[in-house]
User: Which sequence fits this backbone?
């Protein structure tokens, strides 16, 4: 017979599952890393040359941070699709039959998505710090923490969408649109003042903008402030809360039926 | 003990389980019989707290699935009909993760996983991603999760589907061992030989209802007048049919060629008497065959449908 594991241990085991599946999918890692490297060393390098005189800062440095933020955003969105897949394959029945409380399960899934994103982007963050000439390990860890906070919120948003949209095809379309909107309507890969005036106010309060600004503040010394922290924290609080509440309600109501 | 108290579970307009009331005793192997769609899996999932019952309550070892689901889940381990695990992972990873999340300590975990993998002949394939393995191997891994966990209440949904004969026998032995160690086993199956061989008691489900519960032998005994004695004689003696029908328990008697077929109740007990009657009329018996009702007949009798 077995003993009851502690909640913290169970939480770790749930996150560990996401990590195990990540390690077993090296091609996804290679693909994302290759995309990141090409964007950075081909696209960003090229645009930097083109904008040398018109920008008051180095676009390559600016873009390198935004690329990491965009990548973690994309990865954190995957968790919603995972939930659909788990339900389709019957894995959700298995997971819900395990000796772990529903609240722990919900927390574990959301955090698992965030941790997975963090691990994906850790080497990228180190590379960015290196190419941008930033050498403080504390700063890199701080940036990592900010990325983790964003990934938790995006995971919450993805779970919320997965719970609200019942049809997988529709979900795929919505999630692609949401990902596009979250990254593109932000100052992740281009400066805010170049964004069309109509969507500039939205982009200014985007969590992706806030995260990019905060990390640029740490790594590049760009201006950042309380607004970015507040935007990010509010986003995470709302969507982590909503995602957890929706998933919890579905499970408590008798799974997805 | 597991108590099902007037349990119903509906999905929109479909009543998957209807007013099920029964008990599963400690340390028994309880066979849950029924064709696909009878409600077996829904009942199991409701007991495992994955589904919330629409009506009624299930109490597992004193813990309600509604008010104390976490305690219930602590007691249960399920081997699902269709293997349910991350197919990108290897057998060893799947078993390790399952054992870890169900609270099996590190030393025991390693020992049990090694033993089970060896026993199932999976040691050489333990590191392969499971999506690459055959259906039978995947099923073995699904069963192995419960054998590694060794829960107080072990649930096996069609545990020998896709398995070859030696593997079936091994799984049956391992389920017996699990019970001998103190587990209560719920065995959902539509294989009658499996239910008959394994179960202390069976519950027959049909269209979401539990139509009968009892020991296999006793349930067979409820089918009166279903035994058949076949006596092959050297020469048929027609008057024997009239002699046989004089016996109270005999429902019918007739010759088919040289063989006298007698349909009756309590065939096993009456066999010597029947042979004596034949001998008394000068009949010379060449061979005897006694057919008693099978669990399949019991199922047919109570549900009006055949399994599979």
Assistant:
């Amino acid at each position: 017979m077995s003993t009851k594991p502690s909640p913290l241990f169970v939480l770790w085991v749930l996150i560990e599952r996401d990590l195990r599946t990540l390690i077993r999918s090296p091609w996804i890692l290679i693909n994302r890393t290759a995309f990141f490297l090409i964007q950075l060393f081909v696209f960003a390098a090229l645009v930097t040359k083109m904008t040398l005189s018109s920008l008051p800062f180095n676009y390559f440095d600016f873009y390198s941070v935004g690329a990491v933020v965009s990548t973690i955003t994309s990865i954190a969105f995957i968790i919603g699709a995972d939930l659909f897949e788990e339900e389709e394959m019957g894995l959700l029945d298995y997971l819900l039959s395990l000796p772990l409380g529903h609240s722990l399960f919900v927390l574990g899934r959301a955090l698992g998505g965030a941790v997975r994103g963090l691990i994906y982007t850790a080497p990228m963050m180190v590379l960015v710090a290196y190419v941008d000439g930033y050498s403080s390990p504390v700063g890199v860890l701080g940036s990592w923490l900010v990325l983790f906070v964003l990934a938790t919120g995006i995971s919450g948003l993805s779970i919320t969408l997965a719970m609200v949209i019942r049809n997988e095809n529709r979900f795929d379309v919505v999630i692609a649109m949401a990902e596009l909107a979250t990254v593109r309507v932000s100052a992740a890969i281009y400066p805010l003042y170049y964004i069309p005036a109509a969507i500039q106010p939205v982009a200014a309060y985007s969590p992706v903008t806030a995260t990019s600004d905060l990390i640029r503040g740490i790594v590049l010394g760009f201006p950042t402030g309380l607004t970015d922290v507040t935007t990010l924290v509010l986003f995470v609080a709302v969507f982590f809360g909503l995602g957890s509440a929706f998933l919890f309600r579905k499970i408590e109501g008798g799974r997805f039926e | 003990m597991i108590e099902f108290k007037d349990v119903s579970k509906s999905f929109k307009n479909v009543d998957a389980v209807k007013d099920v009331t029964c008990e599963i005793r400690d340390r028994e192997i309880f066979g849950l019989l029924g064709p696909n769609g009878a409600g077996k899996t829904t009942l199991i999932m409701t007991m495992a707290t994955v589904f919330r019952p629409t009506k009624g309550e299930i109490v597992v070892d004193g813990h309600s699935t509604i008010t104390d689901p976490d305690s219930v889940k602590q007691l249960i381990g399920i081997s699902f009909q269709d293997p349910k695990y991350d197919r990108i992972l290897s057998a060893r990873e799947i078993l390790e993760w399952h054992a870890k999340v169900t609270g099996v300590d590190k030393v025991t975990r390693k020992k049990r996983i090694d033993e089970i993998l060896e026993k199932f002949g999976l040691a050489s394939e333990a590191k392969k991603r499971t999506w690459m393995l055959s259906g039978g191997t995947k099923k073995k891994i699904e069963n192995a999760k419960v054998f590694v966990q060794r829960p107080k209440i072990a649930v096996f949904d069609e545990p020998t589907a896709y398995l070859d004969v030696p593997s079936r026998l091994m799984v049956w032995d391992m389920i017996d061992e699990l019970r001998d160690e103190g587990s209560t086993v719920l065995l959902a199956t539509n294989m009658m030989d499996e239910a008959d061989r394994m179960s202390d008691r069976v519950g027959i489900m049909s269209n979401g209802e539990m139509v009968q519960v009892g020991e296999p032998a006793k349930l067979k005994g409820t089918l009166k007048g279903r035994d058949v004695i076949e006596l092959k004689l050297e020469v048929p003696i027609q008057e024997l049919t009239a002699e046989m029908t004089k016996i109270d328990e005999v429902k019918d008697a007739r010759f088919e060629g040289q063989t006298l077929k007698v349909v009756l109740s309590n065939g096993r007990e009456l066999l010597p008497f029947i042979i004596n009657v034949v001998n008394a009329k000068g009949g010379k018996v060449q061979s005897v065959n006694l057919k008693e009702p099978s669990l399949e007949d019991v199922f047919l009798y109570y549900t009006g449908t055949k399994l599979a």
User: Anything to note?
Assistant: Residues 21 and 116 of chain A are 10 Å apart (CA to CA).
